[in-house]
């Protein structure tokens, strides 16, 4: 968690008064304060209906009056994100396949490279597959990353069949006996059926090589996106069942409050968080740190960090 | 875009209809729904607050006309306010200087490079000599991406030299534009957060070097509540002159555009609607406002159609669309015209009444359309003229004959008839909506 706060330090200083500030003013939790709280949740892209629910819960807790309201709010939010056991690369079977999907520009390619880097750090032997055969210089981008990370990449030509490249990448993973292949795909709008069908085709083609592949399918969501993030997650999940969520660009000022509704609806673990553009800038997701960031609570006043 | 918003608003208005007067209570109820719809559309909460207040004042004011129903009156109020927020008039780029400089900026992954390629295509089609400058020196292969796009469009690129800073690169590009007679230079900068002081300073330095007449923020249509802070900060630092909204082909509701425009007050120049270089369209706030209200965008549809189809067949098609009593002959000629117009889902989106249909459903219809249209064409072609003109005569026996003639199964003939009935329903709706639209367009 300390890692997370360090990465966030730069932007956290710039936060104007946030929920943390509201609480520390130690006002009575009156109507006006409740409205202010609701607006802070809305500003964090928490779904409007959910924000209203949370505020109602808080209002109820106020009347009950047994716990400090900040703890109540924090707990309500953390509960929404209730994580099971954290993801580890070592939980994967040999020659595992991890498929990275998402809409245009969400951070898939960068995340693919960061994951390869993280795997290497953990002593896992990865390979990358560049199945973005559509976007101009899509595979070049991953090739350059491959050099920076020190990981081989299997790529096709621009315009070639993405499903075939994915197959080749998995095939190479097995032939070269790598632990893991992380496959980057082209960005696609979730509401475009032909593009979503292509994704199914990629999965079918991986199935042909290994029936269980891909063992993991993660959607990359951009923290700066608002309520549409839920639609993205929903449509992708309906197309190919997702097993994980990566939330990127949390190093900016957006708070990704939409994750609450996504988690609620999909019940898929949020595995990693992107906190910058360098290969090191990917950390395991931590519900508490995320909520603290959203509420503007500093690490030194959570008391459980360092 | 604004699918959901349209849905909610239409629901609200329907509830309002039937009341004799706009009472405080029904306005308040309606506004509660509208507030939620706007928030779910990613409109900034503060903007929503102001918006609701303004609408309420107007709705309860003296402007109530005796001749229209309260529902219509209220629709008009909301439409007026939305148009107001969206900036009323479309403004184009400032192209007066020679060479004209355009600086593109925005967050990571917003679509700057793709949009730069689209602008290059647009302006070089218009006869300008375009020079692109690859100022994203950080993201791997960003320079390559711009070069690929420039190659497709057929324009020149200035690439960074090793160790060269972005302002230095900008300077060099400007000099080259001056000496080699380029009249439009577009600087594609790398993605950055507004809170990254160092990177924003780089933008300031580039701006000071090249003095662009246009400083354009590229915004993802799906952007959330931070849109306002992002745009405001960039505006303070580099003085934005316009916006381009990208990825409108998605189903994001696009409230960010509304928020940014009402807070920062810069015009939205253009909107991106796809991944190809021609997927760039003009933005019209007034049309968008009526689209938000679910009245469709007949004008854009007509304009787009005029671009691609000769006028007489266009007029015919329009008539057919609005006639509302379709037969298979109309359907056949429509199918043939539609092919010239491009992706059906995009067209459908612009039609009145269609915003009520979800993007999902539209996409499904469009895809079905593409796959089936060839088969359907064959089926219609193997019908007799009578069957084409009077679809109701088609009985089981005729279906068998038609299927044989078209080399398909009876099931396909049934599918066609089902679709035909759907289309018929749609055009009926269209007719109604059209009437409504005419009533509101002054
Ligand atoms: N600050 C920050 N930038 C990020 C993060 N993740 C990705 N980016 C940046 O976001 C931009 C887009 O990232 P890509 O990895 O190219 O996104 P993509 O999803 O592969 O894009 P397409 O393939 O075009 O759909 C790049 O400029 C990345 O450097 C993050 O966690 N933080
Ligand atoms: Mg990519």
Could you characterize what this model shows?
- The complex is a heterodimer of chains A (about 300) and B (about 450).
- Chain A is about 50% helix and about 15% strand.
- Chain A is of the alpha/beta class and about 300 residues long.
- In chain A, α6 packs parallel to α7 (about 140-150), α8 (about 160-175) packs parallel to α9 and α10 packs parallel to α11 (about 260-265).
- Chain B is built from 19 helices and eight strands.
- In chain B, α10 links the parallel β6 and β7 (about 270).
- The two termini of chain B are about 25 Å apart.
- Chain B has helices at about 5-15, 25-40, 45-60, 70-85, 110-125, 140-155, 165-180, 195-210, 225-240, 255-265, 285-290, 300-310, 310-325, 330-340, 345-350, 360-380, 385-390, 395-405, 410-440, and strands at about 100-105, 130-135, 155-160, 185-190, 215-220, 240-245, 270, 280.
- An eight-stranded mixed beta sheet of chain B has the order 3-2-4-1-5-6-7-8, sandwiched between helices.
- Helices cover about 60% and strands about 10% of the residues of chain B.
- Magnesium ion (MG) binds near residues 108, 132, 138, 184 and 187 of chain A.
- Magnesium ion binds next to α6 of chain A.
How would you summarize the topology of this molecule?
The complex is a heterodimer of chains A (306) and B (442).
Chain A: H1 2-12, H2 19-24, H3 31-43, H4 48-64, H5 69-81, E1 96-101, H6 108-121, E2 126-131, H7 138-149, E3 153-155, H8 162-175, E4 180-185, H9 193-209, E5 216-222, H10 228-239, E6 244-248, H11 259-266, E7 270-274, E8 282-284, H12 287-295, H13 299-302
Parallel strand pairs in A: 1-4, 1-5, 2-3, 2-4, 5-6, 6-7
Antiparallel strand pairs in A: 7-8
Helix pairs in contact in A: 3-4, 4-5, 5-12, 6-7, 8-9, 10-11
Chain B: H1 3-16, H2 24-40, H3 45-60, H4 70-85, E1 100-106, H5 112-125, E2 130-135, H6 142-153, E3 156-158, H7 166-179, E4 184-189, H8 197-210, E5 214-220, H9 227-238, E6 242-246, H10 255-264, E7 268-272, E8 280-282, H11 285-292, H12 298-308, H13 311-323, H14 328-341, H15 344-350, H16 359-381, H17 385-389, H18 396-406, H19 410-440
Parallel strand pairs in B: 1-4, 1-5, 2-3, 2-4, 5-6, 6-7
Antiparallel strand pairs in B: 7-8
The structure holds guanosine-5'-triphosphate and magnesium ion.
The site of magnesium ion (MG) has 6 residues of chain A, from helix 6.
